[in-house]
Design brief:
CATH topology of the largest domain: Rossmann fold
Number of helices: 11
Number of strands: 8
Radius of gyration: 19 Å
Low-confidence stretches: none
Strand order of the largest sheet: 3-2-1-4-5-6-7-8
CATH architecture of the largest domain: 3-Layer(aba) Sandwich
Mean pLDDT: 97
Strand content: 5-15%
Distance between the termini: 45 Å
Shape: globular
Helix content: 40-55%
Order of helices and strands: EHEHHEEHEHEEHEHHHHH
CATH superfamily of the largest domain: NAD(P)-binding Rossmann-like Domain
CATH class of the largest domain: Alpha Beta
Bound molecules: acetoacetyl-coenzyme A, nicotinamide-adenine-dinucleotide
Oligomer: single chain
């Protein structure tokens, strides 16, 4: 199987932009599709800032940063991702939206060598694959971590229909991107969010019940457990909408009320306070 040359990334959000950046840094052409112009503009600006920061820090030369930047293109037309030999989906964490997209992708990419990967945090890869019909064996979970340029892990998830060769190629691509891939089975939340998200949800219960102020909840977990960010700060960083969606997948998929999203977490989302990406969540981020 030939090396990946052109990667299509669907979704220009925090994760899609990061995935395109690491691909471009590894010499792979990346085309980023998003249906919203403002997402694309934000993505371009952030990537330019992070690449110039990498030059300032001596992690790459100005020429390497320029070459990486030139390898990324952006489009609002899904037709322009045709010709890609690998697709990574990184759109909103909602089943129905992902299922629709994979139905379209299966039609757009009849070539059996093209892998259709999802960066989903929690949704069943088997169900996503089923929505891709005849392309089900080419659907795999390729779960990057935020911020993608910094975090080493890619959690690789095999759906019930995923071909062995697709899993092997996914592990190889993750390594080519400078990541450490680790395999997990297709259960709600896989390993990472089965363990992380209930911790975050519990921190919202602690806040709702007045156990401590947000800064104290986060400080206790940072200083007492050596977490780089406290759970509320991390929830803002991930996106509170994504946290609710992941908890809902755990709740529905495992059928245990202990996974129900905390009412306070849901309330932040209802108020449009989604975290860093909207400028406010548990904390204010507007001037940062
Ligand atoms: N994108 C790219 N790079 C970023 C970044 C971003 N959004 N935010 C920070 N960085 C880089 C900085 O540029 C910096 O590198 P340089 O100093 O070389 O420029 C480096 O990360 C360290 O940043 P800072 O010094 O500003 O701050 P820090 O030391 O506190 O580190 C952090 C920031 C790496 C984000 C750290 O706080 C951390 O590891 N936080 C926890 C992150 C985490 O748990 N991620 C997983 C979330 S769960 C998930 O992703 C799965 C899911 O499905 C929800
Ligand atoms: P985000 O909200 O930052 O970005 C999502 C992007 O998808 C937006 O730019 C939006 O315009 C675009 N989009 C939505 N529907 C679309 C569609 N139908 N077609 C094209 N574009 C569409 O979200 P994110 O944080 O980047 O998360 C994306 C995916 O990655 C989710 O599945 C999430 O669970 C997963 N993930 C998130 C994190 C995290 O920490 N945020 C970590 C790992 C995985």
């Amino acid at each position: 199987m030939s090396e990946v040359k052109k990667l299509a990334v669907i979704g220009a959000g925090q994760m899609g932009g990061g995935i395109a950046q690491v691909a471009a840094q590894a010499g792979i052409e990346a085309v980023v599709f998003d249906s919203f112009a403002d997402s694309i503009e934000r993505c371009k600006a952030l990537r330019a800032k992070l690449l110039s920061r990498a030059v300032e820090k001596g992690r790459m030369t100005a020429e390497e940063a320029e070459a990486a930047s030139m390898r990324i293109s952006y489009t609002q037309s899904i037709d322009e991702i045709a010709g890609a030999d690998w697709v990574v989906e990184a759109i909103v964490e909602e089943k129905a939206v992902k299922f629709d997209l994979f139905k379209t992708l299966a039609k757009m990419f009849p070539d059996e060598s093209v892998v259709l990967a999802s960066n989903t945090s929690s949704i069943s890869i088997t169900e996503i694959a089923t929505s891709a019909g005849g392309a089900a064996s080419r659907v795999v979970g390729m779960h990057f971590f935020n911020p993608v340029p910094v975090m080493k892990l890619v959690e690789v998830i095999r759906g019930m229909q995923t071909a062995d060769s697709v899993v092997e190629r996914t592990l190889a691509l993750a390594e080519r991107l400078g990541k450490t891939p680790l395999a997990a089975n297709d259960r709600p939340g896989f390993v990472s969010n089965r363990v992380l998200m209930p911790l975050i949800n519990e921190a919202f219960y602690a806040l709702m019940e007045g156990v401590a102020e947000p800064e104290a909840i986060d400080g206790i977990m940072q200083l007492g457990c050596n977490h780089p960010m406290g759970p509320l700060r991390l929830a803002d960083f991930i996106g509170l909408d994504t946290c609710v969606n992941i908890m809902n997948v755990l709740y529905e998929g495992l059928g245990n009320p202990k996974y129900a999203p905390c009412p306070l977490l849901r309330q932040y989302v209802a108020a449009g306070r989604l975290g860093d990406k909207t400028g406010a969540g548990v904390y204010e981020h507007r001037n940062k």
